[in-house]
Write a structure and sequence with these properties.
Rossmann fold; four-stranded antiparallel beta sheet; 328 residues; 12 strands; 32% helix; 12 helices; eight-stranded mixed beta sheet
């Protein structure tokens, strides 16, 4: 990882306008991604992780979704102000994305070779022959056996794990600067998950690609990520380097996520911790801490206003009233 910033998200706000009200799926999120960095975005379902990254790719369905505020700067240029041609050149070419369900991400009516060649030709301008050679090379690196014969198979002829390997090979075939992996192991067997994560880590390190890994499990990001952003109800509640987050988690929500992960050093008779309650409805959320109904450390201030950021140094920042009052 270097200090060169390639992506800067500034106060992004993505809302969905429904009959029930305005869903503030992403509500004032900011982060910086550096070249070669592996960033983890974690949180429960509905916290805004995937919508944040769909916003980066400009893939938010409209209607009902709309990016209503903020900036997404790729090498200093605001993606939100680019025309369709410019976005098309970046999407897949400079910023690639792997979705969580590989079986539905590939076109079931087209051969793997057709889908990969089309992508490579579009973004790299190679001939069909050279694009096929590149596709075979990438599939080989991704661990697909007997590539020369299997590249002409259809997606249904591959297992879920092999389809995800194809998606990784396709995503990296155009040498993108950023790879967004949206829960790439959630649809796979446990025995395959570690292989896919190792593959992403190895290939992105080989090509110097920065990674944004979206997951609901802190266990997944522990051995992969340089930095972690913890999201809740459309906001980032804690961020910092991986070592600080795991060694000294500050926000009650982050601590709850960590304690919810099964550990081998605990007695089997110990009951696994779970965060009480349910995530909030993000339609017309009041301007207070959205975690307070589930928080064991809640104070009256939490019910009336959203806390400002508290900086613990080395980029470790949280939003919690307990620490604001302790540092004033």
């Amino acid at each position: 990882m270097t200090n060169e910033t390639i992506l800067e998200v500034k106060n992004i706000q993505t809302h969905f306008f429904t009959d029930e009200g305005v869903v503030k799926a992403v509500n004032d999120v900011s982060f910086v991604l550096r070249k070669g960095e592996v960033m983890g975005i974690v949180g429960e379902s509905g916290s805004g992780k995937s919508v944040t990254n769909l916003s980066i790719m400009n893939l938010v369905q409209s209607p009902p979704g709309k990016i209503v505020g903020g900036e997404i700067l790729f090498h200093g240029e605001n993606i939100l102000k680019m025309d369709k041609k410019q976005i098309r050149a970046i999407r897949g070419g400079k910023i690639a994305m792997i979705f969580q369900d590989p079986m539905t991400s590939l076109n079931p009516f087209l051969k793997i070779s057709t889908q990969m060649i089309e992508t490579i030709q579009l973004h790299q301008g190679l001939s069909k022959k050279d694009a096929l050679k590149k596709a075979i090379e990438m599939l080989t690196l991704a661990g697909i056996p007997a590539v020369e014969s299997r590249i002409n198979c259809y997606p249904h002829q591959f297992s879920g794990g092999m389809c995800q390997r194809v998606m990784i090979a396709m995503g990296l075939s155009c040498n993108p600067e950023i790879l967004i992996a949206d829960e790439p192991t959630s649809a796979l067997d446990v025995t395959i998950q570690a292989q896919i994560l190792d593959l992403i880590k190895d290939l992105t390190a080989r090509f110097g690609t920065a990674v944004i890994l979206i997951t609901h499990s802190l266990g997944v990001v522990a051995g992969m990520c340089d930095t972690i952003y913890v999201m809740y109800a459309g906001k980032v509640v804690e961020r910092g380097n991986t070592a600080d987050i795991f060694e000294s988690p500050k926000h009650p929500y982050t601590r709850g996520l960590i304690e919810s992960v099964p550990r081998l050093d605990k007695k089997s008779r110990d009951r696994l911790f779970s965060i009480p309650g349910q995530p909030p409805n993000v339609i017309d959320l009041p301007p207070c801490c959205p975690f307070f109904p589930r928080c064991t450390e809640m104070k009256e201030k939490c019910k009336s206003a959203y806390p400002p950021e508290t900086d613990f140094g080395a980029g470790h920042i949280i939003t919690c009233w307990n620490y604001v009052e302790a540092n004033t």
